[in-house]
Amino acid sequence: MSIRIRPRWYLPEREVTPESQYLGRRDFLKGVGAGLLSVGAASAGLLGCMRSGYTAAPPTHLLTGGARRNPKYTLDRPLTDEKVAATYNNYYEFTTDKEGVADAAKDFKTLPWSIEVGGLCAKPRKWDLTELVKAMPIEERVYRHRCVEAWSMAVPWTGFQLSHLLKLAEPQSTARFVRLVSVDRPNEMIGMREQKWYPWPYFEGLRLDEAMNELAFLVTGIYGHDLPPQHGAPLRLAMPWKYGYKSPKAIVKIELSATQPPTFWNSLSAAEYGFESNVDPKKPHPRWSQAHERVIGSGERRATLLYNGYAEYVASLYKG
Ligand SMILES: Nc1nc2c(c(=O)[nH]1)N[C@H]1C(S)=C(S)[C@@H](COP(=O)(O)O)O[C@H]1N2
Ligand SMILES: [Mo]
Questions:
Q1: What is the pLDDT at residue 54?
Q2: What is the pLDDT, as a whole number, of residue 127?
Q3: pTM for this one?
Q4: Which of 94, 96, 240, 267 fits 12 for a cystine, CB–CB 3.0-4.6 Å?
Q5: If pLDDT is split at 50, 70 and 90, which confidence band does 65 have?
Q6: Best substitution site from 245, 264, 273 to test ligand 1's pocket, by max atoms within 8 Å of Cβ?
Q7: Could you name the CATH architecture of 16-318?
Q8: Residue whose CA is at the smallest distance from ligand 1 atom 1
Q9: Which residues of 285-314 are buried (b: 16+ CB within 10 A; e: fewer)?
Q10: Cα 242 to chain center, whole Å?
């Protein structure tokens, strides 16, 4: 059993806290919590997984079988340590405490799962996810991930192109946007119950041409196995040239539309979170610079690249 009791001073202050403050608080925690750390966590020196009693469930391969790494999508930078990525998450349906998501989400039931594709298309369909995965060319891709909060990671995702699923649906000529909706299960997602002011369930949107881009990737796995709940199991998006919040987790619905759909963060603060939200080092967030990023795990500071380094794939989408 691993029950985490929140100290009184624990506040969900990190929603959009600048990185210097995370680090300050973490150093503080290292100080006061050192006596409680397990030898393993301490000697691994990991940034995450320090406070929680989280232990990962053994990985399964129900939705990743047979996937091979596609050499076209690799990176010249080291992969983020799996455990670091798995213990530093954004998933507000569970908690705003990044290091607490893994534990808060560990019992979330991810199978069976269905995903509905509908709206302006000739072939709307509700898919059983296991069936969908069998129908899709599954592969592994190493992508960068850049959060709007100026941290980043590089992980191997397993999945398939969103375009393959959309093509099966046969979009009508009037369809110009795609709306994506995350699961709505407040009984199992404590953050939805505790943070009632958010417009749940989480919703996102893309232009149809962005959704059809080869980089737009529906993800069922990470590090060669099924996604653990904290990464958005059993199905999440990876849009590597956009800020992380454009990649919804636990997707249950994809809808083609003629008009631009509203999005979760944009509806909360339009000045801070635009619809497009492409990674752009020259366009600061109103409260902090986007010129650099902190690589989780190593703590290295890197210059942020336009379109997160994916200009060759996506720059043509934004001409004129
Ligand atoms: N449903 C849902 N999807 C979400 C979020 C969320 O809170 N809820 N957070 C987003 C943000 S801000 C980021 S950075 C990524 C984090 O993905 P990871 O935890 O797998 O690294 O998920 C995105 N998808
Ligand atoms: Mo993010």
A1: 79
A2: 98
A3: 0.86
A4: 96
A5: confident
A6: 245
A7: Alpha-Beta Complex (3.90)
A8: 249
A9: beeeebeebbbbbeeeeeebbbbbbbeebb
A10: 11
Residue 31: pLDDT band (50, 70, 90) is very low
- Substitution site in 90, 151, 203, 295 for ligand 1 pocket (most atoms within 8 Å of beta carbon): 90
Q: Which residues contact 83 (CB under 8 A, 6 or more apart)?
A: 44, 46, 48, 49, 56
Q: What is the pLDDT of residue 275?
A: 98
Residues with CB under 5 A from ligand 2 (ion): 90, 147, 244-245
Does the Cβ of 223 fall within 6 Å of ligand 1? no
Give me ligand 1 centre to Cα 214, in Å.
21
> What confidence category does residue 24 fall into, taking pLDDT thresholds of 50, 70 and 90?
very low
The token pair at 182 is 């995350």
Task: Dump the DSSP string for 278-307.
Answer: B--TTS-BTTB--SEEEETTT--EEEPPGG
Residue 113 CA to residue 133 CA, distance in Å, equals 11
Nearest CA, atom 6, ligand 1:
91
Q: Are 178 and 145 in contact (CB under 8 A)?
A: no
The proportion of the chain whose per-residue pLDDT surpasses 70, expressed as a percent, equals 83
Task: Tell me which of 83 and 48 has the higher pLDDT.
Answer: 83
Query: Is the Cβ atom of 48 under 6 angstroms away from ligand 1?
Result: no
